Amino acid sequence: MESAGGSGPTGARASKNEKEELKSRSRRRWRKAKAKASRLLHTMDLRTMTQSLVTLAEDNMAFFSSQGPGETARRLTNVFAGVREQALGLEPALVRLLGVAHLFDLDPETPGNGYRSLVHTARCCLAHLLHKSRYVASNRRSIFFRASHNLAELEAYLAAITQLRALAYYAQHLLATNQPGVLFFEGDERLTAEFLREYVTLHKGCFYGRCLGFQFTPAIRPFLQTISIGLVSFGEHYKRNETGLGVTASSLFTGGRFAIDPELRGAEFERIIQNLDVHFWKAFWNITEIEVLSSLANMTSATVKVSRLLSLPPEPFEMPLTSDPKLTVTISPPLAHTGPGPVLIRLISYELREGQDSEALSSLVKSEGPWSLDLRPRPQHAPRSQSLVVHFHGGGFVAQTSKSHEPYLKIWAQELGVPIISIDYSLAPEAPFPRALEECFYAYCWAVKHCALLGSTGEQICLAGDSAGGNLCFTVSFRAAAYGVRVPDGIMAAYPATMLQTAASPSRLLSLMDPLLPLSVLSKCVTAYAGAETEEDSSSNQKALGMMGIMRRDTSLLLRDLRVGASSWLNSFLELSGHKSQKKPVPLSEPMRRSVSEAALAQLESPLGTDSLKTLKDLCLKGSSELSDTPKMAEMSQSLETLGPSKPSDVNFFLPPEDALEEVEAKEGLSAMDKGRSNRGTFPEGFHPRRSSQGPTQMPLYSAPIVKNPFMSPLLAPDYMLKTLPPVHFVACALDPMLDDSVMFARRLRALGQPVTLRVVEDLPHGFLSLASLCRETRQAAQLCVERIRLILTPLATPKP
After folding, report:
1. Where is the active site (predicted)?
2. Of 160, 182, 204, at which residue does a domain stop?
């Protein structure tokens, strides 16, 4: 006789349906809870939220302290006591930051800077704790209350709010130390190093476990969780594989224990970001280049008629000067570090346009499998577009190619109806600065000269780039102005990196919790791009690399030293030749032919001092006050070669007088104790943030002098260089560690009267363009970039007479 609960297949199906129904109800409750937490965040002011959280924490403390001597009850009592303490300590610091945050905005219509972002992130954490505390208070007597699960989540968010309180104190320290209107730390390099050395010891694992991505829009969090599991799994395989060559995409799907144990995942994530070198990140980020994954990404993008990889031969050519088209300047092929070599570009066009299937262009095609060229018979080609977009991809200067960014570029080509070329520049550390700049500038000039082959008349040309690519947009435009050739009609820079010098800022503090841009990873990428990979970085990773990895690293370093040595020798030879010939008149176009790499290498030989940003006296170019009476473009080109220090007046990082006065008055509200704190005394007595258990972070704290070069850090460019830029449109992320780069750059351009716009998107991470098809929010942000480009390509029609 069968039991009533197991009456054959019918009973099994009923049981399965009940389980599915329970899961569905659970998912609906979860979505409602998240929506409620979001409403709390946007409807409650900071003080009301804190008071409500403290009241609930005290109520839960009283309840669990009366539940006997059990371990779970004791830990719940302690965790609510901790929540109460941290909330009360955090609220005054956030109120103080919020009171002056508006002084650092570009304008009242564009609220956004690192201080605002830090306050918003802390509010997100407080809102989650408030929601969880209410849930516990409502369900703690229920027999279905999962005490252990709720305890683990509360402990994770308590750790997060503790670290956020530490970041708020760091932000106060920056506010009290910096000059009015400046978001970046302005102490000398020793103070900067001391500040960062203290900062990098903070515990980070809590932000990579249960709290992963809590500050972002909910649709992003599952993706971040998948990425974090893939990262730690990939890290395990990378560590075991001595050469690193056998690590493949399959490594991303073998992290079962990391998926079920958030605390283990967070600890391993923290170990990886602190200890593995730039070669690991290069390998991990390039996973998207694998054919299977790139094919899956392209399935969700638009279908285009043309997607061809072109190889530009390293041949010099002439370009007309904008000041006098009868005169020309020679555009030499890239030379830095590795000598002349071809430059790869990808042409993407939604329609097959005139010139795009010409024999001249077909001779440049580089095979990468079947062409994405639709040659079916059609009545005629589409006419050449009046516009052209030149795109520089992101990837920290060390990873990815145009193939990684092809999905959203195809959508751009469809929506804008113009050809797009994306430059596959050489990557660091094998090809450090200025190789990428040289290749991008060479490709830009080639595109301007041969736009007819690309399906464009070239009447309007826009530079567009994200992250590192945004940096290259500005430096290519600087170099075009220095050479005297055509400057682009506008720049669209999405979350660009404009300050590569090691300097703290309020938004940089967010790198403590950012799963895509941790501070140590940023530093390793910049170090690799600067060509200054230290011996400490190599020795610290010998265990992870294994014997074969060490041999490969040593060989790479030897080849790099040989290249740099040869370039330095050539630079010295050219400088000596230049000194000998100074007595003779120099033709107008001759100074423009020299490579920026010569100036960059010359700067390495003569450091500009130890101060990092002190009134920005360490700039690498001569100021406009030092220009002679020769044509301006030629003088600018000569200044690129000499790289003398700028005068303080060349750079204006400060607010207009009335705003400066307002901020000085606000800062006077800080207590004398706040102003007198040293880095070690940043925290009030009795507060102790959690420290990392992963050992010291392998991160260079002193910047190489070359990162002060405006062609590496365009934010440090003197005013006369900024005045050569075309209209600039920034699209930044409020929760991006690079936010202050865009805000400060936009403020400087606005102060000079340059046309500039800034849009700050909320609740999205750095790199949202690569996630454009993920959710509604990323699609809207990507569409905003398209609209900015359209503004450049469609200038306002002139009124009829």
Report:
1. 467
2. 182
What pairing do the DSSP bridges indicate for beta strands 306-312 and 343-349? Answer: antiparallel
* Active-site entry in 467, 567, 624, 742: 467
- Label each residue of 508-555 as H, E or C: HHHHHCCCCCCHHHHHHHHHHHCCCCCHHHHHHCHHHHHHHHHHHHHH
pLDDT band at 704 (very low <50, low <70, confident <90, very high): confident
458 in any annotated domain: yes
How far is the C-alpha of 47 from the C-alpha of 56, rounded, in Å?
Answer: 14
pLDDT above 60: residue 140: yes
pLDDT digits (tens, 9 = 90+) for 505-551: 999 999 989 988 888 888 889 999 998 764 444 444 444 444 444 44
Residue 463, class by beta-carbon neighbours within 10 Å (0-12 exposed, 13-18 middle, 19+ buried)?
buried
Do the Cβ atoms of 512 and 519 come closer than 8 Å?
yes
pLDDT tens-digit readout, 346-398: 999 999 999 998 999 999 998 775 544 555 555 478 999 999 999 999 999 99
Q: Quick one: pLDDT at residue 197?
A: 80
**What total number of domains does the chain contain?**
2
CA distances from 515 to 167, 350, 522 (A): 17, 34, 12
Task: Determine which helix (DSSP H) or strand (DSSP E) holds 390, and give its type and residue range.
Answer: strand 385-392
Closest-CA residue to 728 (of 706, 711, 745, 707): 745
As a whole number of angstroms, the distance between CA 456 and CA 436 comes to 25
Task: Provide the mean pLDDT of the chain.
Answer: 78
- Is the pLDDT reported for residue 486 higher than 70? yes
Containing structural domain, residue 161: 35-182
- Secondary structure element (H or E) that encloses residue 422, with its range: strand 420-424
Residue type, 756: V
Which of 147, 182, 217 marks a domain boundary?
182
Q: Is residue 170 part of a domain?
A: yes
Q: For residue 276, with 0-12 CB atoms within 10 Å meaning exposed, 13-18 middle and 19 or more buried, which class applies?
A: buried
Could you tell me if 213 and 766 are in contact, meaning their C-beta atoms sit under 8 angstroms apart? no
Token readout for 657 is 């007088």
785 domain-assigned:
yes
Q: Express each pLDDT in 369-381 by its tens digit.
A: 554 455 555 547 8
Q: Phi/psi at 507 (nearest 5 deg)? A: -70, -30
Helices 657-667 and 71-101, packing angle to 10 deg: 140
Look up 467 and say whether it is catalytic.
Answer: yes
Is the bond into 429 cis (omega within 30 degrees of 0)?
A: yes
Mean pLDDT of 111-117: 95
The answer for residues whose C-beta is within 8 angstroms of residue 654's C-beta and 6 or more apart is: 179, 180, 181, 182, 660
Q: Which of the four pLDDT bands, split at 50, 70 and 90, describes residue 318?
A: very high
| pLDDT, position 602 | 43
CA gap 117, 213 in Å, rounded: 14
User: In the numeric block, which tokens belong to residue 425?
Assistant: 């520049």
Instruction: Answer whether 0.85 is exceeded by the pTM.
Output: no
Residues 460 and 319 in one domain: yes
Q: How many Cβ atoms are within 10 Å of 130's Cβ, its own excluded?
A: 24
Whole-angstrom distance, CA of residue 587 vs CA of residue 21: 82
CATH number for the domain that contains residue 450 = 3.40.50.1820
